[in-house]
Amino acid sequence: MMNWSEIAEVQPLASRIITNSIKKDRISHAYLLHGARGTGKEAIAQLIAKNLFCEKLAGVEPCNQCNACRRIASGNHPDVHWVEPEGKSIKIEQIRNLQKEFSYSGMESTRKVYVIKGAETLTVNAANRILKFLEEPSKQTTAIMLTENSHAILPTIRSRCQIIDLQPLNIVQFERKLVENGLSKSTAKLMGALTNNLDDAIARSNDEWFATARKIVVQLIEMFADNPQDVYLFIHNHWVVHFKERTEQEEGLDLLLLAFKDVLYYHIGNESEMVFFTNQEQLLEKAALSFSQEELLTNLNAIMQAKRKLKQNVNPTLVMEQLTLHIQR
């Protein structure tokens, strides 16, 4: 369980802004925490909630031991409500249910907190419903919205929130911590390219799904190099089957992006920057012969565009089909 002193090590500005508000008893009625995956959005949201409910608060630090802190950490506190996308978006029905819940008095206090994960996925109707919630703030209600793309949030919502921008972690320090926790240097380097969250990185390094995902990406690069005519079939038989959820699909594209970057680095003799391919000289050489530097740059742009399409809720199978055709050319 993290505390504010730990948050200050990785997000010093965000920690200072929020803890100063706590000291002055001026916690905002609405926060918008903006940062890439793994920058600590959920940990900060939890800490804000704990500050409001902790039974043994010591200055700005929640105790992390009392009944309220433990239930907030486990997601089971009756007055702290988490809302996250159902499928690809947060729908108006979810916000209606949240508002209905908030029409009742608190189960254990007069205070309530709601946290909206992936706030950029709010449908237009859901966003407008949240806006009404924010336009009539209650001192006893705190809204915390988490997003990787604050520009996708309605300007009228942003204007009613205190926006906290979270910065990427120091990559060298992060990789060092991963090695200290038992990861190999090569695995730590890959994890550092994917996430800034220590627990997330350690969990992924031991996760069977992630190991299979990495293997599929390696096989896909091999297919592009050796049997490009069979890639389309491979996408349907392996990629689509394994990467089912939106977060998984995004992670698959993140891995593919890193793989093609490694091929480009190999092309230009900058092997020290490679993070995905380790001890796979033969495959790298084969892939480098299959794609020119110009083609690799075009492919990287195509993968980034595919990621944007996923964010826009374009059908993921269609996204991969289009990306495959683009890379095959």
In terms of DSSP E residues, the strand content is 5-15%
Global mean pLDDT: 90
Low-confidence stretches: none
What helical percentage do the residues reach? 55-70%
Q: What is the CA-CA span between the terminal residues?
A: 49 Å
- CATH topology of the largest domain, by name, is Rossmann fold
Total count of helical runs of at least 4 residues = 16
Structure description:
The chain has 329 residues and is of the alpha/beta class. It has two domains: 162 residues, P-loop containing nucleotide triphosphate hydrolases (Rossmann fold), CATH 3.40.50.300; 122 residues, Up-down Bundle (Zinc Finger, Delta Prime, domain 3), CATH 1.20.272. Helices cover 58% and strands 8% of the residues. The chain has 16 helices and five strands. A five-stranded parallel beta sheet has the order 2-3-4-1-5, sandwiched between helices. The protein is globular. The chain starts with a helix and ends with a helix.
Which properties best describe this structure?
alpha/beta; Rossmann fold; 2 domains; DNA_Rep/Repair_Clamp_Loader; transferase; DNA-directed DNA polymerase; DNA_pol_III_delta_C; EC 2.7.7.7
Briefly summarize what is shown.
The chain has about 325 residues and is of the alpha/beta class. The chain has helices spanning about 5-10, 10-25, 40-55, 65-75, 90-100, 125-135, 155-160, 170-180, 185-195, 200-205, 210-225, 230-240, 245-265, 280-290, 295-310, 315-329, and strands spanning about 30-35, 80-85, 110-115, 140-145, 160-165. It has two domains: about 5-165, 3-Layer(aba) Sandwich (Rossmann fold), CATH 3.40.50; about 205-329, Zinc Finger, Delta Prime, domain 3, CATH 1.20.272.
